[in-house]
Amino acid sequence: MATVKLMTDAEAEAIPAVKAVFDDIRATRKSDFINNFWRALAFDPALLKRTWEGLKAVMATPGTIDPMVREMIYVAVSTANACQYCVHSHTAQAKARGMTEAQHAELLAIVALAAQTNHLVTAMQVPVDPEFQV
Amino acid sequence: MATVKLMTDAEAEAIPAVKAVFDDIRATRKSDFINNFWRALAFDPALLKRTWEGLKAVMATPGTIDPMVREMIYVAVSTANACQYCVHSHTAQAKARGMTEAQHAELLAIVALAAQTNHLVTAMQVPVDPEFQV
Amino acid sequence: MATVKLMTDAEAEAIPAVKAVFDDIRATRKSDFINNFWRALAFDPALLKRTWEGLKAVMATPGTIDPMVREMIYVAVSTANACQYCVHSHTAQAKARGMTEAQHAELLAIVALAAQTNHLVTAMQVPVDPEFQV
Amino acid sequence: MATVKLMTDAEAEAIPAVKAVFDDIRATRKSDFINNFWRALAFDPALLKRTWEGLKAVMATPGTIDPMVREMIYVAVSTANACQYCVHSHTAQAKARGMTEAQHAELLAIVALAAQTNHLVTAMQVPVDPEFQV
Amino acid sequence: MATVKLMTDAEAEAIPAVKAVFDDIRATRKSDFINNFWRALAFDPALLKRTWEGLKAVMATPGTIDPMVREMIYVAVSTANACQYCVHSHTAQAKARGMTEAQHAELLAIVALAAQTNHLVTAMQVPVDPEFQV
Amino acid sequence: MATVKLMTDAEAEAIPAVKAVFDDIRATRKSDFINNFWRALAFDPALLKRTWEGLKAVMATPGTIDPMVREMIYVAVSTANACQYCVHSHTAQAKARGMTEAQHAELLAIVALAAQTNHLVTAMQVPVDPEFQV
Question: Per CATH, which fold does A64-125 belong to?
């Protein structure tokens, strides 16, 4: 179904550059599970490595935004970009990091409200208030 | 510049249905400032009222997500939907609710990362892992 | 401001392939006004001609959808695609074809509602009901 | 497949806030069929109620735009936002309200043409003509 | 699964306007295969014909951009517009025209990078440098 | 106009982490010009550095896709994502790398055609042909 082949663990074992990333994903996440996104990206070890390192730097490094909130923001963007896989995977991760049903519902309400006013604003071409300028 | 006229305070005073909403915006926000979005929507008092009440229910009602985080999620969706006015107004509101420069930078990093992987996933058509299904 | 030069009437006069399209736009619309979109496309006469003929076939030919409604649908798509110029030009055309303020407000309400439920559906990944299948 | 559970009729019966909305949907639409969108939203009765009331106000209330045309506009926005479920459900509703095959084809032609010129305009960054300003 | 019926070869044989387009697709592509896009569009012979002629003019006519590169650009746009079918069909065509795995990976890297910086730019509302103006 | 301050050269001189990136941009591009995107990102030196290194790896490293073609693909994605700044900056870069007017017109034609068929496919929900599956 994908436009590239998904790499199995057996195949990954044979390609050191892929094995190294898979090992790091497993160590970082403290889980044996490698999801399909990484198995797809593995067709190009350099792209796999760059993408994983970028994601690790943003999502798996202590920062100023709570890890669960980071996943909720990820879901928000993925929804607006209509990425089905990303909605599934990051909703699962937000839940794994503690998102309750009430928070999930509130996230959906904010995303839907933003979409609604985004479209109203664009349809009316509202000029930016000087008060909002830096 | 807009496709509808922006309503001035003088004009709003003369239309009870608009005045009522403007008054409620001012009371709810504890500020005299009415931004252009509401002045544009005011060309249709019913649409103005429904939109404001929807927004108030989601953004100005105590809930399970922190008010500053709600604005950050709003910025994320508005960015993905390419709504310039919304990016300006909700970034300003997130800052007003305490978003620091470090949090702003982290928000941008998450939004940009999500966009990057959203596009990778779509270009590779990665199938959803059974593990992510409810 | 554009990424291509906008062609003036004087320049268009000197290029028969452009002049022919500009003449046809004026004759079809019964107006001397050539809007910037066509002046921009004119940098490539073949692209100008193909685009104008495609638009004329869909928008300026009698069909089963009312001309004002066609413009409203155009505004809806242009809003969702965040095309500022297109929102301006097709809102102007819808008004020129009789769209009232009440209809404009109703159009905005439908567009905004659709955006809202589009995002809810995507965020929840709702499966299509068998009842909706052809 | 969804990121939330779809509520069955049996489960809805046991939650008065959900049952009330499902009853109103059935009464308003004069049909026993509750489509999956509402069954998904039902995981949060307040979000379900607000969304249904918003939709009823825009889509199921007499106004200035024909009910079939409203559904066609809904399809247009849903297409541009790449919402598969919404395209299915609102195409079905447009057909149920009388959209013929010829009208469907014409709708698709307008949506596709708008997308085409939206992208041309954005790629050329055409400045808005003063004639289009309100 | 589609919102229109897919036309079989037997049905196409009976409608001269559809048969003529199917014949031309086969002759132009030197292949007997008619993909589902054309079978879907065939429900409206005029839309089918206009769409095919537009596509043939852009994609199957000698020009200044290499045919494989044209397909790669097509994949890029289809990815950003979240069109699953289009990603599948044009990735297949790019491969058929010689796109290697290394080029595919590089294409994905560019698309993902562009999406990333597109979102950063929009979130920061960066003003266009005068140096970039025509 | 931006939601962050644009950093001047004088300010950048005083922040080693920013100065290092600006120096590398100038050295890599063999030009003294630093465009606004980098001046905006400079508000967060770590984000600036990560973004520049990502871009350099994809756009300024020898690979299998011609540098001018890379910029054309960038323009295609930026157009579909409605990023005005990105359309301006990458169109300028494509021209700087040799894109002719004829190639520019052909690029626009492909982008517009893709958008048109993307929307047709989504509106018809065409199922993927088994022939396109990997």
Answer: AhpD-like (1.20.1290)
